[in-house]
Design a protein that fits this description.
The complex is a heterodimer.
Chain A: H1 2-28, H2 33-38, H3 45-54, H4 61-73, H5 87-93, H6 95-122, H7 127-141, H8 144-158, H9 171-200, H10 203-210, H11 215-245, H12 247-252, H13 258-267, H14 271-299
Helix pairs in contact in A: 1-14, 5-14, 6-7, 6-9, 6-11, 7-9, 8-9, 9-11, 10-11, 11-14, 13-14
Chain B: H1 2-21, E1 49-54, H2 69-75, E2 83-85, E3 91-93, E4 96-103, E5 106-111, H3 125-136, H4 138-141, E6 152-159, E7 162-167, H5 174-177, H6 188-201, E8 209-215, E9 219-224, E10 238-243, H7 247-255, E11 261-265, H8 270-274, E12 279-294, H9 304-313, H10 316-322, E13 328-329, H11 353-362, E14 369-376, H12 380-395, E15 398-405, H13 407-414, E16 423-428, H14 435-443, H15 456-466, H16 471-488, E17 491-504, E18 507-508, E19 524-525
Parallel strand pairs in B: 1-10, 1-11, 14-15, 14-16
Antiparallel strand pairs in B: 2-3, 4-5, 5-7, 6-7, 8-9, 9-10, 11-17, 12-16, 12-17, 13-17, 18-19
The chains are: A mainly alpha, B alpha+beta.
Chain lengths: 310, 526
């Protein structure tokens, strides 16, 4: 187990280097941030040069990269061009809202998809199955911004049950989570249903039934647990995606998340925030993937990490 | 199979019912739904506190570090300048009770006494000197405000409550510029003790409100400053500026009473807002003008006849009436009708497609010539305007290819480098409301946003209007300048912006500001 984790850590370092290289050079292709910071002003050549030097942008790109990586090792993500605040602080301010939203979205998706997926596999061909297949299709077809606005209009404006926007306590988490989760659940239902159908055909399920084990135990403990593998992989990847990719939902609900921060910073050419944000998201994705892989051995003891079987 | 069909039908019916329930969506097609919804005005529960929607966060509250409108929307209540500008755009005493021009390049200010900063520090001549040394010195020079104040050489303390400002050139717009942005007075002791980074996040000024809470990209809270020198004029206890970037979301917040005032309400939302009985709409002319600017270095728009023809070909009045629902003012020069320098006697180009065709024929422009029209991708309304323009130009034999590009690249690279096609969207609005700023940046040879235009006469006139502080003199120069630019047809002047505010009826005495800088004197709640 230990050697497995160490190997994964060394992979992590490689991935971070690759990601940082890509984002560092890619964003510098988008244009010069100094002219934007002067806006409508007519800065003197001297002012432009001084600001460029202050931001370290006058050095050759490779040198800038080395400085950036050196700082990164000490967890110094640099300073935002726009606000003069440390980037790490800005990212951490938004860590909790981002994670809360991703968890909320995932929870909604699982709460809908797991029962629906299992039931539609068990009662294949019956009404519940038909309903779940149509639901799945609708789920992936809805544009998420449309769904977000509809939720606000119905539940916040017309019914006044929930707040419209912003992150102010648990009730404000509900609508954004539904907007994120409903669409995700569409895909998840199909996945669980397919995996369950596969597993229900297996020998060991028939054996369990023959042994007289109650049906619901057969389904939950024997069938579903094995159907979990592809689901867990998918959920893990999606969770990472939810953390950084909920930009549209964040925009509609004025949610103070990392996705929105990165997009705004790209528009303003605020290099340090974009770099720091992307690398942070990459780190989180790697961590989530590691957890997912470790979960495998919990779900199916036959899959030992690091050791080949046979 | 039959079961499936029934279930599908049921689901479709549910969807239709759900959509019908949600009357008052904010998509462009739904203006028809205007049944008044009388909900309870829950905003009343807030009492003497206001919540206002703003679209963005300036990230940094230091006056010398910013040029953003979103800064001054809030900061106008926190900081003050020597001079103040009222909601009706009149220059009035601010932190200076009076001033006198000793000669064209020397102004003496008599400062108000008994004024304190929010941290208790006294306001005096030393604070004024500190402010301008900072603005004009190393720190200020790295920022975007410096270039607005280069006419000031230095500020001298000539008494405990008197300063003398020495100028190095004549600046007719200086007094206006002293009422905001880089010239607002900052506290010396506070900045020296706390440092610039802290000042960015926790600003301190002399204004009627002090900033008590700032959560980046979420909200700013300002509360009444009890020792304000004019505190009887302020009736409100607290104002919260909530950052809500999406207009549809902001409208929903307005309709539920969660916010009292919504800025930048879109034309398509006007009917929905009016449909709520505790909301009223207020509109106000702004300094922002919109035009389609020509890149005079590119054929065929290098020919003035072609530029004039395009001006005649577009029916601006119909565009404002139909696309903007009348929320826009027609203009004859690239400035708002509120701007000093606006020529009221000059009429905009009339809609005359026959004349347009004649001019194009004179210039030997073959039918079907294609023009590239660049617009920023984020502006949905302007996209519609661009399509209308393409239609009008097609009527006179020109083809238009509309290119939608990323906003920041458009502003900071494509336009300055002359890569924005034959014509492009141009919007400008100086808070100073004096044509000097716009005209210089747009028409002076070599300016950043002027890649190609040069004209001797225009240069002379620009120099002339800057050379005197006599407003009558300047008015005459501007009159001539606008006429020359009209003949040159440097752009198609479309309209000057009218901003729509959605306001909860419990707010009394509120006047929307022309320049987006809120003033709360005299504002009360029912």
């Amino acid at each position: 187990m230990l050697s497995y984790i160490l190997r994964r850590l060394s992979h992590t370092v490689l991935v971070i280097i690759a990601v940082s290289l890509i984002i560092f050079f890619a964003i510098r292709l988008t244009g010069d941030p100094v002219s934007i910071m002067f806006g409508a002003g007519e800065p003197s050549q001297q002012a432009v040069e001084e600001l460029t030097a202050k931001l370290g942008l006058d050095k050759p790109v490779w040198e800038q990269y080395i400085i950036f990586m050196k700082d990164l090792v000490t967890l110094d993500f640099g300073t935002s061009y726009r606000s003069n605040s440390p980037v790490l602080g800005m990212l951490l301010e938004r860590a909790w809202p981002t994670i809360a939203l991703a968890l909320g979205g995932m929870a909604v998706a699982l709460l809908i998809a797991v029962p629906l997926g299992i039931l539609s596999a068990i009662y294949k061909g019956k009404s519940i199955d038909v309903f779940s297949r149509i639901f799945s299709l609708l789920g992936i077809s809805f544009p998420n911004f449309w769904l977000a606005f509809m939720l606000i209009l119905i539940f916040a404006v017309q019914l006044k049950w929930l707040p419209v926007s912003g992150f102010d306590g648990f009730s404000s988490l509900i609508l954004p989570s539904i907007a994120l989760g409903l669409i995700l659940s569409g895909i998840l239902v199909r996945l669980i249903r397919t995996s369950m159908l596969e597993v229900l055909k297996m020998q060991y399920v028939t054996t369990a039934r023959a042994k007289g084990i109650r049906e619901w135990l057969v389904i939950i403990r024997h069938a579903f647990r094995n159907a979990l593998l592809p689901t867990v992989t998918f959920v893990g990847l999606q969770f990472g995606g939810l953390l950084g990719g909920a930009v549209i939902v964040e925009q509609v609900f004025s949610w103070p998340g990392i996705g929105r921060l990165i997009v705004d910073s790209i528009n303003q050419r605020d290099y340090p925030v974009v770099q720091g944000g992307v690398i942070l998201l990459a780190l989180i994705m790697i961590l989530v993937n590691l957890i997912v892989d470790l979960c495998y051995s919990l779900i199916n003891p036959k899959i030992r990490t690091g050791r080949g079987d046979n | 199979m039959k079961k499936q069909k029934w279930i599908a039908l049921l689901l479709v019916c549910m969807m239709i019912i759900l959509s019908a329930c949600s009357g008052g969506t904010s998509t462009k097609d739904d203006n028809k739904n205007s049944s008044k919804s009388s909900g309870e005005n829950s905003a009343v529960k807030r009492g003497n506190e206001l919540v206002i929607r703003v679209a963005g966060d300036p990230q940094n509250w230091d006056p010398i570090d910013t040029f953003l409108l979103s800064w001054s929307t809030v900061a106008t209540s926190v900081f003050e300048g020597l001079v103040s500008r009222s909601l009706d755009l009149e220059i009035q005493p601010g932190l200076a009770e009076s001033w006198e021009y000793k000669d064209e390049k020397t102004i003496v200010f008599q400062l108000r006494q008994g004024v304190t900063f929010h941290n208790g520090e006294p306001f005096n001549a030393e604070a004024v000197k500190f402010t301008f040394d900072r603005l004009l010195g190393d720190e200020g020079q790295k920022g975007p405000q410096y270039s607005n104040y280069t006419s000031i050489d230095n500020v001298e303390v000539t008494g405990e409550y008197e300063v003398t400002m020495h100028l190095n050139s004549i600046d007719p717009v200086l007094l206006t510029k002293l009422s905001g942005y880089g010239a607002v007075i900052v506290p010396p002791k506070y900045i020296q003790e706390q440092g610039a980074e802290n000042f960015d996040m926790k600003p301190v000024g002399t204004g009627p409100f002090k900033m008590t809470d700032y959560q980046r990209d979420k909200q700013v809270v300002i509360e009444r400053y009890e020792d304000y020198w004019n505190k009887d004029a302020i009736k409100l206890d607290k104002v919260t500026f909530k950052v809500i970037p999406e207009t549809a979301t902001a409208l929903a917040e307005l309709q539920t009473g969660n916010i009292d005032i919504m800025t930048r309400l879109e034309v398509s939302q006007a009917a929905t807002a009016e449909g709520t009985d505790f909301i009223e709409l207020m509109d106000v002319s702004t300094p922002t003008a919109y035009s389609i600017r020509f890149d005079t270095a590119q054929e065929p728009v290098d020919d003035v006849r072609v530029r004039q023809a395009i001006n005649y070909a577009i029916d601006k009045e119909t565009i404002v009436k139909e696309i903007l629902a009348g929320y826009g003012n027609l203009i004859s020069s690239f400035q708002s009708n509120l701007s000093f320098g606006y020529n009221k006697d000059l009429e905009p180009y009339p809609y005359d497609p026959e004349k347009a065709k004649k001019l194009l024929a004179e210039a030997n422009i073959p039918e079907g010539t294609t023009l590239e029209f660049f617009i920023p991708g984020t502006d949905g309304t302007f996209k519609e305007i661009a399509q209308a323009v393409a239609f009008y130009l097609e009527e006179v034999g020109l083809k238009v290819s509309i290119n939608s590009v990323e906003n920041t690249t458009f502003q900071s690279e494509l336009i300055p480098q002359g890569k924005a096609g034959h014509m492009y969207k141009n919007g400008w609005g100086g808070w100073t409301l004096d044509f000097d700023n716009t005209a210089y940046l747009m028409y002076h040879e070599g300016e950043f946003w002027n890649p190609s235009f040069k004209n001797e006469k225009v240069e002379q006139l620009l120099a002339a209007e800057r050379a005197t502080i006599d407003n009558d003199e300047r008015q005459k120069v501007f009159k001539e300048l606008t006429e020359v630019l009209y003949e040159e047809a440097t752009e198609v002047n479309l309209y000057s912006e009218v901003e729509i505010y959605g306001v909860n009826k419990r707010i009394k005495g509120f006047q929307p500001p022309h320049d987006g800088r809120f003033r709360f004197e005299g504002v009360t709640v029912e």
